[in-house]
Amino acid sequence: MHRTIPVLVLALGFVPPRAHSEDSSDIAELRKQVEALAKTVGQLQQQLNQQRLAPMFGSGQPLNGGKEVVGTTTDTANSYTPPKETNLNAFNPEISAAIDVIGSYSRRADNVNFITRDSEIMLQANVDHLARAYAVFNAETELTPTEKTDVFGETSLGIEEAAIETTALPYGLAVKAGQFFADFTRLGKVHSHELPFTDRPLSLDSIIGGESKARGVEVSWVPPINHYVRLTAGAVDNIGAEPTITGQLTTLDGTEEDAFTFRGSDRRSFSDVMYYGRAATIFELGPQAQINVGADYARGRDAGTRSLASADFKFSWTPRPDSYDLFELSGEYLWGRSRGAFTDDALFDPSLTSGAANARGGYVYAQYKFGKQWQPGVRFDYVRPESWQQLDTDFDGEADSVERGSDRIRTYSAYLNYHFSEFNRLRFQLSYVKSNHAIFAGGADDWQAFLQWTITLGPHKHPFSP
Amino acid sequence: MKTLLLLFASCALAHAAPLKVVTTVPDIADITRTVGGDQVDVFAIASGREDPHNVPMRPSAITRLQQADLFIVMGLELEHSYAPAMLAESRNQKIQRGRPGFLDLSGGVRPLELPKSLDRSEGDVHPNGNPHYNLDPVYGQMMAKVIAARLGELVPGSAAKFTANAAAFNAQLGGKIAQWRAKLGKGTKFVSYHPDLIYFAARFGLQQVGTIQPKPGIEPGPRAIDELVARMQSEGCKLIVKESFYSDRLPNELAKRTGAKVVSVPILVNGTSAAGGYLGLIDAVVNAFAK
Q1: Which residues of B fall within a CB distance of 8 Å from A423?
Q2: Nearest residue on chain A to B96, alpha-carbon basis
Q3: Average predicted confidence (pLDDT) for chain B
Q4: Percent of chain A at pLDDT above 90?
Q5: B181 and B68 in contact (C-beta within 8 Å)?
Q6: Spatial distance between the Cα atoms of B12 and B22, rounded to a whole number of angstroms
Q7: Does B80 touch chain A (CB under 8 A)?
């Protein structure tokens, strides 16, 4: 049909010159023919257009004045096909999951544990044109190699993170609100199965209190300048998944409770809110190396006044860009302090009604990835946590004084990762922990071994983290 | 009057400032420079030497994205490991997906190797098909044309110039395609490390017998190597093509067992020193095959 139209048009083009020389009846005859031809051309054109449009509109309009055309061989494109039903599941959020299985052994405690530390489900999607939201649900079991796990202990699914984040603010700004891992320290905001080693460094664990979990609001700003900088400020209730060690009082029977009173008892005033800030930037040292540096500070009041500060770095180097080799050297220095009026259990001496405890420490690790699979690394961690302890100076079985005690704990670790794929990793880690006190079942040091198998399911995403 | 003058001056300045373009791979950057001339300031995130699936996220690229007017990607999930995170961190509304400042060139591609099902047991499958179409020079022509059209929309005053530049580039490429075709033996059988030469092979009538990775992104075990050796021997395949960023350990082992020859090829512009510029890239690949 495509060829018929130009031929007809050509034929029409040749008609008029001949018509001039003929008489009027011939002209009338010709006019009739021309009109007939024009009509045919118009019909063909219309038919052609309808055929062209048919695939776009699915079934198209029936030809021949609405007569049934199904079954005719020439108009198959116009036969009725039911329109595709909209599957609203397509709007469902992205789902990903992580499973983190760990077998641990403590030599001092002579104890073997098998745990699924993280069984994590993450949902995330854009809410609308202005915001995205995500939620991370986790059934977490704590990693405690020296203590036998309770096989009948219940593991409950908790909300690790649930937050809303803006996506369309101007000037490089973004606001996040909800429960989230605050942009505070380098490894505090990393989910435990994504850590470079099996256990969270003890310094981070005792000073921050595990992950930098917080509930509140966080504003981050990437200023539109020629050097990458990310500035974060937040207002939250507290930072940390567990109470920090500096705010603890160890009673005579060994239980831990708050050492300091809540200033506002059952309310939280604006001056009690924890405010924090972080500045992070990255310097490129040539095309193959870069160094990330960051520093942060937080201050708030929950039980006593708590201050936190840290500084961190990460150096990464690709010896050859046309390979997968990657060297990383990273470390962090942390400091924390709790201070306030003592609770009744810490109050014995009228001259000592308040106190403070400091903790400081840090870790440094280096790892090298050979190709895509093997990745050995070493880590050193040091922490000097202080906390208050009840004393029984006259040996009558009753506490009669408090004292600020401190430990010095060093952890030396070596680990080896084997990446089966980007979603499947096996890790072996050996740690030697040494304290100045007998903090492990009857001893001051311990050898701990971990075998960890971690997988992730679902969409493949790498975050950008300064 | 003064304000009018100022307005005029600022308009003139705005017009004179080149359009800031960020591309994921240097191939797009090179073509964009050719098409855009001095009207564009182009920056590529990938250097071209690394595996295109494994590009480091450098902070300088974030600041470039933050100020960019146009972000051009290959698409088909080639850049999924770095581009989405960097685009989000740039917080630049102009270049987000769906905006005029975002261009996904895979819209002009008829993808090969569309997966029949999506399952991670099949390796690093790309849901919308194989993304390595940059090695087909006819798609190189498509990229020039599509880039010229988008640049023309963003700088309407220079649209004609962009179209003319693209036409000149495509004519040059057209001539080269004929030369390359003559240089390449038709039906040459080869094995590559990863399935990134299939568009090139389809264009020039070459035959990929297999890949060293039994599934995309999955390193082979001894059994997979044995199977590949058997296939190469039964097919009479005498050429192993190793992409520049893969280790040569397995290709050499395979060569020893089959008597085939190993050649190293770039798969992105700047992948090797010979592959400077888009024409240089295809030249380098053709030369490796024709050696």
Answers
A1: 120
A2: A168
A3: 91
A4: 53
A5: no
A6: 23
A7: yes
The 3-class SS string of B242-271 reads: EECCCCCHHHHHHHHHHCCEEEEECCCCCC
* Record: contact A322-B84, CB cut-off 8 A: no
The β-bridge partners of B23 are B44, B72
- State the smallest CA–CA distance between residue A331 and chain B in angstroms: 20
Q: What is the ipTM of this complex?
A: 0.86
Is the CB of B63 less than 8 angstroms away from the CB of A228?
Answer: yes
**Tokens coding B215:** 């599934």
DSSP A5-41: HHHHHHHHHHHHHHHTTS-HHHHHHHHHHHHHHHHHH
A86 to chain B, any CB pair closer than 8 A? The answer is no
Burial A228-237 (b: 16+ CB within 10 A, else e): bbbbbebbbe
B140 near A CB under 8 A: no
Over range A265-278, report the average pLDDT: 88
Among A369, A366, A373, residue whose Cα is nearest residue A418: A373
Task: State which residue of chain A sits closest to B58, comparing Cα positions.
Answer: A284
Q: How many CA atoms lie within 13 A of A109 on its CB side?
A: 19
Q: Say if CB B60 and CB B90 are below 8 A apart.
A: no
Q: Contact B82/A318, CB-based, under 8 Å?
A: no
Task: Tell me which residue in A169, A323, A463 faces B245 most closely, judged by beta carbons.
Answer: A323
Question: A412: part of which helix (H) or strand (E)?
Answer: strand A409-421
**Beta-carbon contacts below 8 Å between A and B:** 78
Q: Give B216-262 pLDDT, tens digit per residue.
A: 888 898 999 999 999 999 999 999 999 999 988 999 999 999 999 99
pLDDT for residue A284: 94
A167/B58 CB distance under 8 A: no
Strands (E), B53-125: 70-73, 102-104
Instruction: Report d(CA A129, CA A169) in Å as an integer.
Output: 11
> CA-CA distance, A277 to A297, in Å (whole number)?
6
Helices B137-154 + B277-290 axis angle, to 10: 170
Dihedral over alpha carbons A178, A184, A186, A189 (to 10 degrees): -20
B59–A228 C-beta distance less than 8 A? yes
Instruction: Inform me whether the C-beta atom of residue B85 falls under 8 Å from chain A C-beta atoms.
Output: yes
Q: pTM for the complete prediction?
A: 0.82
CA-to-CA distance for B268 and B29, rounded, in angstroms? 11
Contacts for A149-152 with beta carbons within 8 Å, 24 or more apart? Answer: A149/A113, A149/A114, A149/A115
| The two three-digit tokens of residue A243, written as one number | 């109470």
Give the distance from residue B186's alpha carbon to the nearest chain A alpha carbon, in angstroms: 30
* Residue B60, number of CB atoms within 10 A of its CB: 17
Q: Do A228 and B217 touch (CB under 8 A)?
A: no
